[in-house]
Amino acid sequence: MPFKQRGECCRQSVGRRKIMIKAALKTYFKNSKYVFVAMGLIYLVIILMLFALVRGVISVIGSVSAETYENVARFVVDTFQGVTFEEATSIAFYKSFFSGVAEILKTDIKNGIDMVIGVVIVTVAFVLAAIMGSQVLCRSLMRKSTSDEKSLRGVAAILMRYVISLIFGYLLVYLNTLWTYSFIFVLLVYFIHNALENLFTTWIIYFRNYSIKDIFNLRNSLRLILSGFVLIAVDVVIVLILYLIMGALFAILIALPLFAYTFAVTDIIAASHFRELQSKGKLHLREKLENKEKPKKRVSKVQE
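User: That's the sequence. What structure does it adopt?
Assistant: Structure tokens below.
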């Protein structure tokens, strides 16, 4: 009997895993029209930020040029003031003069480059915020019933996910400057964290009257992570095909909204999966579990 029960449990686990992956793929292709929503928001922000970037760079060049002109003019006046004819005709004097001008230009150009880098960082930050915002927007549009998400718990969960997604996005960009393959580590950590957070917020928003053990456990976390990796694999295949056909730039422009949409799908897989289990009566109400535990305690007292 134990071997049969163990085999039955393994078959049920594999079956639920297949059901979650199947539900993820079904949701992914069924709601694929929302990729265009993500495209619209991301491309709009990219266009606006490109204009802001060009304007910022031009402003930096103008301010640095004016500051350099003032510094060089002040240096020339200070250098030639009180110079004798013999000093003005010596080679050493002009070597010192031109080295001073070169030092001023070097310092001002370095400051200008630092200012341009700051403008670029702000631009990238806004684009990342738009990508995460498109994920939240797609997720909200894909929800069939938003009544629960309008509650205080739902709003808090959405804000928490958005902030955490932004943190992971900025961390990915920062670590990528230190280590080329850091995105693999960050992506793995994000999937694990996203699965745990997704299961907990799904329970607290939609299924808080049911047992938390039926939803927030290791098996469901692994199923959700596996489903997310399956969807990412689909995205990678699509992007590679576009890269081979249309080129790198087109593939990148499609990859940004596509991955944002995919992460939005992973956010709603858990709720749709557990609603299906709820309709089949495979989730246990917390009241029934408490009622089952009470008679056992009474019997133990009578036996004593």
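The radius of gyration is 30 Å.
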